[in-house]
Amino acid sequence: MEVMCIDIGKGTQDIIYLDIERDNIENAIKMILPSPTRIVGDKILKMERDIEIDGKIMGGGPVSRAILQHIERGYKVVMTRRCARTVRDDLEEVARRGIILRDRVDNPDVVLGDLDFEMFRSIFRDVGVDFKPDVVAVACQDHGFVKGQSDRITRFNYFRELLRRSSNPLEYIVVKEEGIFSRFRSILETLRENNYRGFVMDSKIASICGILDYAMEEGVEEFIGLDIGNGHTLGVSIKEG
C-alpha cells in the first residue's frame, strides 16, 4: 500500500511517500516544499493588474496578506464566495476589507487550494516514480468557525470535545465533509475529486500521535511533549500513555 502523508504548515509543506509493505522509513521519498499559502501568495504579489480568484478554502496567512496588499496597491480583487473564506470565515468582514464577492468566476487568474496534485504528479514524473497513492493523509490547522466566537476558543472547544470522547488521538481523524471546519472540508473534497482515499487531521494532534509513537517504542509512559511550529506551539502532558 502506497501512502502519502502531507503536513501543511505556515511556511512549508512536509511530505513523505512510501510503500508501507516494501519501504522502510529511511528510504521513503521525502520533500520539504514551500507551503501552498506561500506559493499562491508569492504569485499574487508578482501580479500588477486586477485579479479574479476562485478555488477552495485554503490556509490563510501569506495568501490572505498578499490579497489585502494587492488591494492596498490600488488593484481590484474579485473572489468567489466559496474561496473567500480563506481570508475570513465571515464573508461580511471579507467584503468590508475591499474584496468583491461573486458567486462565480469563469476565468480565474488565481486558483486557491491546499493540495496541488498536478504539482506532485509533475515532480514524481520528473524523477521517474509513479504517483499512485492508495491513501493520502493530510495534517493542517483549521480553527473552525462559529459566528461571534473567537477562532481560538472554537478550536480548543473542539479539542475538549475530542478528549471527552476518547483519550486516543489516533481516533481524531476527519473523514467526512461536515461540521464547522471549512478547510478540512475543502481538503476532503479535493481528495474525493481526485479519486484518492484519505483523511485530514489537526496538525497539532498529528504531532502528538508521532510523539506517542516514539514514546511507546522507547517505553516512556510519562512525559511532556512539545510541537513548536512557525506560527503555533502546543504542549501536552502524558501520564501512563
Automatic annotation (TrEMBL):
Classification via InterPro entries: DUF1786_pyruvate_format-lyase
Pfam family, one: DUF1786
Stated name of the protein: Uncharacterized protein
Source species of the chain: Methanothermococcus okinawensis
Source organism phylogeny: Archaea, Methanobacteriati, Methanobacteriota, Methanomada group, Methanococci
